[in-house]
Amino acid sequence: MAGVKIYDTAVSPQWIDYNGHLRDGYYSVIFSSAVDALMDRVGLDEAYRKHTGCTLYTLEMHLHFLHEVKQSDALSVQVRILAADRKRIHAALEMYAEGKAEAVASCEFMLLHVSQNPEPRAVAFPPEIAAAIEQLRQLSAALPAAGPGSRTIELRSRT
Amino acid sequence: MAGVKIYDTAVSPQWIDYNGHLRDGYYSVIFSSAVDALMDRVGLDEAYRKHTGCTLYTLEMHLHFLHEVKQSDALSVQVRILAADRKRIHAALEMYAEGKAEAVASCEFMLLHVSQNPEPRAVAFPPEIAAAIEQLRQLSAALPAAGPGSRTIELRSRT
Known about the structure:
homodimer
């Protein structure tokens, strides 16, 4: 296992496509919910968002699809905090299906802390949130990756 | 405008998150449906899939979130075929909201042609499909990008 377990979910029947597998777009929806769980863990939870008007915006997401996922699979997501600064979190998430050793997908996110009112603008994390992010980073940054990381997508000829 | 228009959609109320905007994961769901439209356009449609047992698998997806999308936005997606080989398509998709000049998101996909039975394996496109892909590539490859392309996600310090 590659990171700190943060989220688990069943596969909704509506997420299955005409190929009989989890549709690519819904891997992202699951990873998005896992980021919500990450937010809860570091204190960027509903109460914080309501009280401060601050939240995370996703700037970028890079997803590798490694194995098919079926309706019957029980999924879990693990997280590694690769880096963070005053306003941003660079996180790597990996998805597993119960009973399979290899990750079924890996995903990197760049997340930005934003104050939404009156106009959205990037703001620094409060100290206690920054400390919680740093604690999780120290716990997870050095753990091994279970799938490819972000890179430039390109087609190298194999024909 | 940056590519060949391939898909349009309204924003489903279920896709709006606690920030009041289109949830990041649903940008991917919309891009995924746009890839279905791309498949229809080059002949990898439902009849083809049923007849041949072949389809496209998504290997990789890299998404940049450029602007917030609201419930009331009417969205369209444009495609550029950046490259293709015997079995793969490297496509860039850009999402627009009606009435706004700038793209709200850009996304690159690496797609692989797969024969699903008896076991999934990569296979070459039939000649007529390859020709349709090449025609769309010639039409779109040189069109300008409307958002960032795929790159390695990394946090350069701005603090």
